[in-house]
Structures are given as structure tokens and as C-alpha cells.
């Protein structure tokens, strides 16, 4: 009968992928079976009803319940079946605090939807847009959505915005909260879903005026927690020892180790491989995989590979050992983890507004984080978590929650963005946790000194242009004024090298961390790092010296970077040249890409691309002056006692041993302030005292300068200049 034919047709059409018009692949059905077992699938209808019924919605679910991969797809289905207006195609956005997560998850979802990444499903992270006019679902970092809001204040291209990983409380997510609350008032058709891994859900609910809260029950197995009897002196060594012990004595199951950064993780992976290698065939095979934000995407994917099979049939089963930063805490879910090792530390941003220093510090995690970490062990079966600290320390020393980033960051960039978004009254902006007034004041002050805000706090023309660069305000200032110093080509190259994400390697999200550049030469010249991080082998030391001799510029690290970039281009980006010269090709390629994007922004504002004649005496001088025009607030002075003091803040600092200088300049600008047992300034350049009073007289106005040696030197420089002017007048 007719009914049968219709049913048949339905069955056929459901085998056609509506996005591509092609039949679904075998792989699609395989993944679909897996997806259907995820906890969120049991609440699909409930979720869609709730979404229909209200403008904003809070969704809370344990890590791994399928929030990030499934919910956006549910939303997409609902949006598309509802809207009859085909002309107005609107997108679904899903934000991620970490670029790795945005990339990894979008790839996975493209696979789940049986489409090509970059077409229907895309991602957008700073300096990399992998989306097209066909894109209907876009994963993007929270920082990127904020940037989009600068040109599209009502975010009109989206019908639903999902703020994922809200519990991480990154700076950009917190700003988006306040912004979206406003946008929701002006756009009744927009919907916002806030997703979080359990923490603080009620707080979100209160903030979004009682938005409904939906809970996805986790399916966690019990996790047994072990503490150490005594505090561990060296957590890295303790972590490696624990891995080896688990591998020798515990039943099958994969291991997840939390460490703090790339260097440490690579070091740990090497040592684990070595120590387990030494055990021979008494133990099963292992596959040790690192995970951190600057790992290339193909390497990131390895965390999802299965554990290695036994060496011979019926032998001891193999184990996968993932050594990861905080990324694996909630952003990415790895199935099959049974053992978690938690040393209790993570790299976190700290900001001291009094001395204007923002730094990444290895600091103790919160109880909430420790809880999340241990949860990773119980995803597929009962698990064990080894905390490398005492129970007493857990109870007494750990904060209950991680502080939101907005309370511990430099806000200069955020304030510039907010001003550009038209939010003038920062004091009354609806922050979920308002930042300290002192921090806001500091940010306004910095932007005023840079000329981005006038004395009334309004955005200037210069500030307007600066806000268009996805860089910190100092760097964008330097770029915008570089044509005045006839060196915009060179400043572009230096900026690209500095802001290349490989340099920005410990940073979970994009542009707040520009000051935290890593030791430049070390990073650019990757082979040097092949040896252990702490002790350079003799060959590596030789390679480092050679590289320094080849590219090093005695006036500063920024000029060294420029030399490397120029040499790379002059040698036609040749991979074997890179190899022979200890140059990290991947870093240079990516810097080149960044540079092209910055050139495009320069073009939009008719900023001239120009250079000083290379043989001119002014070639490097102009570059150094242009840099100072952006970084005049990051200057240190060499005291007679032989150490450096930062200008105005009078902090004792030391030149980082990695610098390329052959002398100790009287004045240096620096890009990064590194807090360790000693305070280092890294990526430094020699500049002249006279330039300070020429280029930034408003900042070097001695009327409000603390008493110090630098002040006396500046006074002399001012007097010298007055004398000179007088002589000129007399003549
Ligand atoms: P949540 O956001 O709730 O933490 P996700 O949606 O990220 O959960 O993960 C759901 C499932 O998808 C997990 O079992 C995870 O392991 C799996 N998954 C996610 N990305 C990948 C990938 N790239 N490869 C294989 N499995 C993946
Ligand atoms: Mg998630």
C-alpha cells in the first residue's frame, strides 16, 4: 500500500546526509552507535523542550557526558527544523576556552556529522579560521567570539550561542557573560546555553536571572583516592615513580598524569619511556603520549589512540600513558583512563597591579580541580587517583575553588575591547565577579599612556585602530606607529615572531598572555631543546652557541628574531636550511602566517608598509625606537650596584641568561617578566635614555616619578636637552 512506500521513502531519505546530499558512510553509523550511549542522549527531548521554552539555559554535566560534542548537534537540528526562513541562514556557535579543544572537538564533530571540517562544521582560533560560507556550526575560542562581537555587536550571525566550559571562568568567558546578557535583551530571537562541568551551577543560574538548570547525571564509577604520607619534595620525580609502580603492579587500564607545561611534559615522557624500557619484558608495552596546547593537531589526536596490544598473543596487555596539562581536566575526555596521578599543581596567571606584573606561575590547584582530576579515573570502570600530596595538605592548603581569571589578570586588553564594544561604564558593567578597582584603574591608566584612551576615558582614533589587532595593546601601539619610524615591515616581522602561538606556549587562551613569551632563541631553534630541559648536552650547547653566533644581534633579542626571520625568507623557506641552521620551521611558517594577517589589518587602516634602507645607520635605530613607542612602560635601568630596577615600580630584576646581548645596557625594554626564585626579564633590547624623553615624555614626566637612580639620570638628560635647545636658540 501507499503507506508502505512512504515509510520506505522516509527510511531512504534518512540515509541521506542532509548537509552533503550524499548517503551516510559506514563510519557515520559506527560512531552513531557510540554517541547514543552518551548520557546526554537520554535527555535529548528534555533538553530541546527546555531550549524551546526559554531564552537562556544552564546545562551541567560531568566531563565526558557528551555536552561539547552532542549538544551543539541537537541545537542544530532544532534550529533547522524550526526556521522556515531559508534565506536567513544562522549559525550555532560553541565557545571553548582552549584552542586545542576547539580544534579537536570540531574535527570530531565533523566526523560525527559525516562532513568535511571547515565546511558545515568549522573552528576559529586566533590567527586561524577554518570555516566557510557553508558553516552552520562553529567551535571557537571565547576570545574569538569576543573579537567577532567587536564588528557584529549583536552577534547577528548566530541564532544560538553555547558558552562551554563555563566553570573555567576564563577572562573572555566572563566578559562574554556580561555582553550576552545585554545582547539577549536586544535580541529576543537569540538563545544562550551555558554549559559547565558541575561547579558553580547555581551561581550561573542566579546571574542569568533564574534561567532553568538542567542536570545530566554522570555515570561515574567509584574512584579510590590515595594521598602521600609525607609531602613530596620533587613532584615530577614522584609522578614518574608512581607511573612506573602502577605499570608494574596494577591491573590493566590507562594512566593520566597531570603536569604543568610543555617542557616538563616532554621531559617526563622521555623519562617514563626510559625507566619502563629498563624493565624489559617483565612488564607490558606502553605508549606514552604528551598533551599540551602547542602540540601539532596530528599529535593531539594520538591521545585517542587505543593502548598498545600485548607484545605476543596472550602476553601482558599494554598501557597508554597520557601526560597532560590541565587540558585533560575537563576540556578533553579520554576514554579508558583508570589511573590518575595528580601532583596538585597547574600553571596559573597571577597579576599584581601594584607593580603591573602579570606572570604564569606554577601554583597549587583548588579542591574543585583536584576533584575533577580524580573524576577522570572513573569514566569506564572503577579507578584510582594518586594525589602526590598529603591529605592534611588537601584539607588545609587548597582553596575550595579556582579564582576566576578576571580577578588575577592584567585587564588592559579587556578594557580596550570593552571600550570598543561601546561599554563605557566599566564600574557598572555586569561582571559576574567584578575585578578589583585597582586593576581596572591600572588598565585605564596604561591605555591612556598608550594614547588609546583620552583623559576622559574615551576611545581615541588610535585606540580604535589598536583594538582591531588581536595583540596586547603595547604591541598594537608599536605596529600602528611603526610607519612613523619608517620600519613597519620590520616591526611586522618582529610582532609576528613574538606573537606566534608557539612562543606563547603556556597559555590556555589567546591574547592576554603576550608578555609571557618564552625564551625566544630556545623556541625558535627547536633542536636545542631535544636534550633535557635543564642540562644542555655538549652538542646542544654547541648548536645553541652556533645559532646565536649566526643570528644573534648584540643589541637585543627582538633584533635576533628579525635576523632569523629574514634568513628564513632569504633561503626561500627551505626545510633543509632550517634543519641545518637549528631553525624551527613550524614556528617560522606559523609566524609568516601571522604576519600576513597583521599586514591585512594594517592595510584596512591604510598604514604604510615601509622600511629604512638596510645600509643606513638608522635601520636598527628606527626599529628600536618604534619598539619603545609601544613598550615604554616595560623598561628597566641598570643601577650602579649592577642590577636592574624596573622603571617607576622599582622591582629588582635580572636579565634572563638566554639573552643575546654582549653587554649590560644602561636601559633595556623587556617583553616578559618571569617570576621564579629570582625575577627575570626576558626578551630584552638595548635602548637609549634620550629616546625615553623624546618618545614618551608624558610617561617620563619627572613630576610624578619615584625617587631613584633612574630619575636622577633622566633629570640629567632633560637638562642636557634644555641646554642644547638654549644653544640652538642663542645661535
Ligand atoms: P563533555 O563535553 O561532556 O565532557 P564530550 O562531548 O567532549 O563530553 O565527549 C563525549 C565523548 O566523545 C567522550 O567519550 C570522548 O572520549 C569522545 N570524543 C571526543 N572527541 C573525540 C575524538 N577526537 N576522538 C575520539 N573520541 C572522542
Ligand atoms: Mg566538554
Automatic annotation (TrEMBL):
GO MF assignments: ATP binding; hydrolase activity; RNA binding; RNA helicase activity
Keyword Hydrolase: yes
Broad class of enzyme this protein falls into: hydrolase
Gene Ontology biological-process annotations: mRNA processing; RNA splicing
Keywords associated with the record: ATP-binding, Helicase, Hydrolase, mRNA processing, mRNA splicing, Nucleotide-binding
SUPFAM superfamilies xrefs: P-loop containing nucleoside triphosphate hydrolases (SSF52540)
EC code: 3.6.4.13
Domain Helicase C-terminal: 242-422
Domain Helicase ATP-binding stretches: 48-217
SMART domains according to UniProt: DEXDc, HA2, HELICc
Domain of life: Eukaryota
Catalytic activity: ATP + H2O = ADP + phosphate + H(+)
InterPro entries documented for this protein: DEAD-box_helicase_OB_fold, DEAD/DEAH_box_helicase_dom, DHX15_DEXHc, DNA/RNA_helicase_DEAH_CS, HA2_WH, Helicase-assoc_dom, Helicase_ATP-bd, Helicase_C-like
Family to which the UniProt record says this protein belongs: Belongs to the DEAD box helicase family. DEAH subfamily. DDX15/PRP43 sub-subfamily.
PANTHER family the UniProt entry points to: ATP-DEPENDENT RNA HELICASE (PTHR18934), ATP-DEPENDENT RNA HELICASE DHX15 HOMOLOG (PTHR18934:SF109)
The name this protein goes by in its record: RNA helicase
Organism listed in the record: Malus baccata (Siberian crab apple)
Lineage, opening ranks: Eukaryota, Viridiplantae, Streptophyta, Embryophyta, Tracheophyta
Amino acid at each position: 500500500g501507499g503507506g508502505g512506500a512512504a515509510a520506505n521513502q522516509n527510511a531512504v531519505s534518512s540515509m541521506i546526509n542532509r548537509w552533503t546530499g550524499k548517503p551516510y558512510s559506514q563510519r557515520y553509523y559506527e560512531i552513531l552507535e557510540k554517541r547514543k550511549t552518551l548520557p546526554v542522549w537520554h535527555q535529548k527531548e528534555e533538553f530541546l523542550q527546555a531550549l524551546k521554552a526559554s531564552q537562556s539555559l544552564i546545562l551541567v554535566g560531568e566531563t565526558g557526558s557528551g555536552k561539547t560534542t552532542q549538544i551543539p548537534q541537537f541545537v542544530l537540528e532544532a534550529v533547522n527544523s524550526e526556521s522556515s526562513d531559508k534565506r536567513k541562514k544562522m549559525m550555532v556557535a560553541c565557545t571553548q576556552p582552549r584552542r586545542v579543544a576547539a580544534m579537536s572537538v570540531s574535527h570530531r564533530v565533523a566526523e560525527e556529522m559525516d562532513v568535511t571540517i571547515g565546511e558545515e562544521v568549522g573552528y576559529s582560533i586566533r590567527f586561524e579560521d577554518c570555516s566557510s560560507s557553508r558553516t552552520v556550526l562553529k567551535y571557537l575560542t571565547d576570545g574569538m567570539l569576543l573579537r567577532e562581537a567587536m564588528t557584529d555587536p549583536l552577534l547577528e550571525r548566530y541564532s544560538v550561542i553555547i558558552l562551554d566550559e563555563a566553570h573555567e571562568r576564563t577572562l573572555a568567558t566572563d566578559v562574554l557573560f556580561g555582553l550576552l546578557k545585554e545582547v539577549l535583551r536586544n535580541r529576543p530571537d537569540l538563545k544562550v546555553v551555558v554549559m559547565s562541568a558541575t561547579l558553580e551551577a547555581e551561581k550561573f543560574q542566579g546571574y542569568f536571572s533564574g534561567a532553568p538548570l538542567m542536570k545530566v547525571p554522570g555515570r561515574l564509577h567509584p574512584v579510590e583516592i590515595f594521598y602521600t604520607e609525607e609531602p613530596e619534595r620533587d613532584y615530577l620525580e614522584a609522578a614518574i615513580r608512581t607511573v612506573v609502580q602502577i605499570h608494574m603492579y596494577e591491573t590493566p587500564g590507562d594512566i593520566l598524569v597531570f603536569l604543568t607545561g610543555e617542557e616538563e611534559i616532554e621531559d617526563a615522557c622521555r623519562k617514563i619511556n626510559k625507566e619502563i624500557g629498563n624493565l624489559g619484558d617483565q612488564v607490558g608495552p606502553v605508549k606514552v603520549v604528551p598533551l599540551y596546547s602547542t602540540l601539532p593537531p596530528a599529535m593531539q589526536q594520538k591521545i585517542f589512540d587505543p593502548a598498545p596490544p600485548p607484545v605476543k598473543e596472550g602476553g601482558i596487555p599494554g598501557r597508554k600513558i597520557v601526560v597532560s596539562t590541565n587540558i585533560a581536566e575537563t576540556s578533553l575526555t579520554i576514554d579508558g583512563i583508570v589511573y590518575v596521578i595528580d601532583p596538585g599543581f597547574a600553571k596559573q596567571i597571577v597579576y599584581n597591579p601594584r607593580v603591573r606584573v602579570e606572570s604564569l606561575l606554577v601554583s597549587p590547584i583548588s579542591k574543585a580541580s583536584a576533584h575533577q582530576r580524580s573524576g577522570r579515573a572513573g569514566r569506564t570502570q572503577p579507578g584510582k587517583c594518586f594525589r602526590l600530596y598529603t591529605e592534611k595538605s588537601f584539607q588545609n592548603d587548597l582553596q575550595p575553588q579556582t579564582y576566576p581569571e578576571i580577578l588575577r589578570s592584567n585587564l588592559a586588553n579587556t578594557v580596550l575591547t570593552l571600550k570598543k564594544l561601546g561599554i563605557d561604564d566599566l564600574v557598572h558593567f555586569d561582571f559576574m565577579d567584578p575585578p578589583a578597582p585597582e586593576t581596572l584603574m591600572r588598565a585605564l591608566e596604561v591605555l591612556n599612556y598608550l594614547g588609546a584612551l583620552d583623559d576622559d576615558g574615551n576611545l581615541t582614533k588610535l585606540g580604535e585602530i589598536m583594538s582591531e589587532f588581536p595583540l596586547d595593546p603595547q604591541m598594537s601601539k608599536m605596529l600602528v606607529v611603526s610607519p612613523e619610524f619608517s620600519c613597519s615591515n620590520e616591526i611586522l616581522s618582529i610582532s609576528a615572531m613574538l606573537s606566534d602561538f608557539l612562543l606563547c606556549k603556556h597559555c590556555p587562551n589567546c591574547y592576554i598572555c603576550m608578555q609571557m613569551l618564552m625564551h625566544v632563541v630556545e623556541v625558535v631553534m627547536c633542536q636545542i631543546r631535544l636534550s633535557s630541559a635543564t642540562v644542555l648536552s655538549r652538542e646542544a650547547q654547541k648548536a645553541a652557541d652556533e645559532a646565536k653566533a649566526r643570528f644573534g644581534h648584540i643589541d637585543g633579542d627582538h633584533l635576533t628574531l628579525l635576523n632569523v626571520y629574514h634568513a628564513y625568507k632569504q633561503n626561500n623557506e627551505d626545510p633543509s636550511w632550517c634543519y641545518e641552521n637549528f631553525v624551527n620551521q613550524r614556528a617560522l611558517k606559523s609566524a609568516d602566517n601571522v604576519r600576513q594577517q597583521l599586514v591585512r589589518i594594517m592595510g584596512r587602516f591604510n598604514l604604510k608598509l615601509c622600511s629604512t634602507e638596510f645600509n643606513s645607520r638608522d635601520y636598527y635605530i628606527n626599529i628600536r625606537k618604534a619598539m619603545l613607542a609601544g613598550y615604554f612602560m616595560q623598561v628597566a635601568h641598570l643601577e650602579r650596584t649592577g642590577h636592574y630596577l624596573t622603571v617607576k615600580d622599582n622591582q629588582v630584576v635580572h636579565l634572563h641568561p638566554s639573552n643575546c646581548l654582549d653587554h649590560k645596557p644602561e636601559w633595556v625594554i623587556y617583553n616578559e617578566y618571569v617570576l621564579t626564585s629570582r625575577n627575570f626579564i626576558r626578551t630584552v633590547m638595548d635602548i637609549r635614555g634620550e629616546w625615553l624623553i623624546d618618545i614618551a615624555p608624558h610617561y617620563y614626566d619627572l613630576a610624578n616619578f619615584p625617587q631613584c637612580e633612574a630619575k636622577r639620570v633622566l633629570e640629567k638628560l632633560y637638562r642636557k636637552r634644555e641646554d642644547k635647545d638654549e644653544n640652538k636658540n642663542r645661535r
